[in-house]
Amino acid sequence: MLDDIYSNKIIELAADIPLIGRLQDADSSATAVSRLCGSKVTVFIKAEDDKVIDFSHDVKACALGQASSSIMAKNIIGSSFKELKELAIIMRKMLKDNGPSPVGKWSELGILEPVKDFKSRHASTLLTFDAVNDAIEKIK
Questions:
Q1: Looking at residue 97, what DSSP letter applies?
Q2: Confidence (pTM)
Q3: Low-confidence stretches of the chain (pLDDT beneath 70)
Q4: C-alpha to C-alpha distance for 39 and 34, rounded to whole angstroms
């Protein structure tokens, strides 16, 4: 049954995470940890006018956490704080309330939709969204 969530695309994303490391001139950083599995994501954000202008992250997570972090890194630069807050809400609803997948530049996150059936995997999948929004709150 778990094979349903670990698709080839998830494995590909987990194997090729962009923007790894520590952003030295970050305006903010935050870490999110899953108490259930120990997965951890730390993000570093540089912002201007309520938009992300640079980003990096350190990802020590399972393949699902790595895949969601990979998609985040591919799309976050240029995103507004409001967009990122709304994205986190959409992802939570998709996993916990059978809501729709994200659309537009975030539509690739739809590959994580099967995770909704595995509650024990929700936390690691959502780590990057939690860390990003915590970092944004620190900037505000």
A1: S
A2: 0.95
A3: 1-4
A4: 5
